[in-house]
Design goal:
Length: about 90
């Protein structure tokens, strides 16, 4: 039972770290699209600006989802640690 709990905790820790890294990466990509929106360019049309803003919103929204998933797994791990400490 203890080994299974440790395996589950290890899987949850790796998922938490992965989702946090995905969130950070998407946050960076979204900020680059935002920079593409606000920096002036000679050949940029309104369609390009709207496409950049759409991509910015999309990437930042997915980044928020990944950060929330990471926090969810962090809370689950904290609850598992609390239960383990109470059982000992």
């Amino acid at each position: 039972m203890k080994n299974r709990t440790n395996q589950t905790a290890a899987i949850l820790r790796s998922k938490m770290a992965d989702f946090k890294q995905f969130g950070i990466t998407l946050l960076c990509v979204g900020s680059f699209f935002y920079l593409g929106t606000i920096l002036p360019s000679d050949g940029k049309t309104m369609i390009d600006t709207y496409a950049y803003m759409g991509a910015t919103i999309l990437f930042l929204g997915v980044s928020i989802v990944f950060f929330r998933l990471s926090n969810k797994y962090k809370k689950v791990l904290a609850e598992m640690d609390d239960q383990d400490s109470l059982q000992q």
